[in-house]
Amino acid sequence: MKSYLPETIFYEEYTITSDQSAMRVTDIHRWLSTRSHWAINIPYEVVATAVQNSFCVGVLKEGRQIGFARLITDYSIFAYLADVYVEQEHRGRGLSKKMMELMMGTPWVKNLRRILLATKDAHTLYEKYGFGTLYYPDRMMEIFKPAHYDMER
Fold it and tell me: Rounded distance, CA 37 to CA 98, Å?
């Protein structure tokens, strides 16, 4: 059962929040489906369901979502960090760090046994929050469908 109080911090002209009701799914979908390298063409309904069923942190400016991160989790043992982004024109201001600080500082997140993620180019950011290479890489397996969303259209 999800049992946490949303947290909101204000940083420069930005609002960074874990309040689920503050997430702007239209903005998140627009970015993921057109700008990400991992979810191009992802359908809106898939993003809406993912946001609804995850622990999310968003960065808002003037009512628009310009950053996002989510944990796919059971809220007790395991989580997978996904869909982390900050729009290009807002990068370099420490916003991804602030999102990670809010997320990783949440008490129940601190108590998780395992948190995984996949990243193409942000290893340095995530290492600051304790992420490293797999402890037992030979025990991990996956099913991966890189063109999955292209096939759904």
Answer: 23
Joined tokens for residue 25 = 């799914």
Q: Are 81 and 115 in contact (CB under 8 A)?
A: yes
- Tell me the β-bridge partners of 82: 70
For 6-33, letters b (16+ CB in 10 Å) and e give eeeeebeebbbbbeeebbbbebbbebbb
Count of CB atoms within 10 A of residue 103's CB? Answer: 23
Residue with tokens 């997978």: 80
Phi, psi dihedrals of residue 129, rounded to the nearest 5°:
-110, 15
Question: Which tens digits make up the pLDDT trace of 64-123?
Answer: 999 999 999 999 999 999 999 999 999 999 999 999 999 999 999 999 999 999 999 999
Please name the residue that has the structure tokens 């760090």: 97
